[in-house]
Every structure is written in C-alpha cells, then in structure tokens.
Specification:
This protein has one domain (about 1-110). The chain is built from five helices and no strands. It has helices at about 1-10, 30-45, 55-70, 75-85, 90-110.
Amino acid sequence: MRLFLTTTLIAFGLPSLAWAATQFPGYTPEQSEKYLTACVEKAKTQAPPFVSEQFFKRYCQCTLNYIQERVTYEEFRDMAKAKTNNQPLSVTQQRADTVLDESLKVCFARMGI
C-alpha cells in the first residue's frame, strides 16, 4: 500500500476534493481528487471483494488528511519523487516519509483494523 501511495503521488501529484480539507497551501482540489480516486481504485484491487468502496473512501481520506495536516505538498511530493528514483532522502523528505508510514498505521487503527 505504501508503494502504491508513493507511486500515485508521483503519477497524479498530491491533491483535496470534496473529500478533503486542505491544511497547507499547495494541496489543490484537483490533486486531492486524483489521489483519492487512485487510492480507492488501487485498494479495491488488493482487498477481498466483500470490503465496501465506502470503507476505501474513508481510509484513503483519512490518510490524505493525516498527511495534509503534517507536511506541505512540496515536502511530500519531493519525498515521493526521491523514493521513486531510489535517491537518498533529505531530513525533510525523511520526515514526510515518516508521516506517510504513520498515516497508514493511524488510519488502520482508527478504522478498527
């Protein structure tokens, strides 16, 4: 899931749709919509068929909100690009990577998984 999120961010940029409340400048509604749509679609391919799309939407929104509250769009985008290119992460990028890890764990816990 983590690799998927990183790849999605590179492909679509990190974005806020009606699903998201932007916390930092730079997270545009269009980017968020693309991120959330791609996140839900990818999650559906990796989960058992009985898991609802509504669950995926809530999970993906949770991760996006968590990330938006803690790092800027540029920090997260730069981290995702560096990871995709197998480059060493700067201190700022390491922090963004930690936030990504935390978002996955926190949102699973919030959803009772």
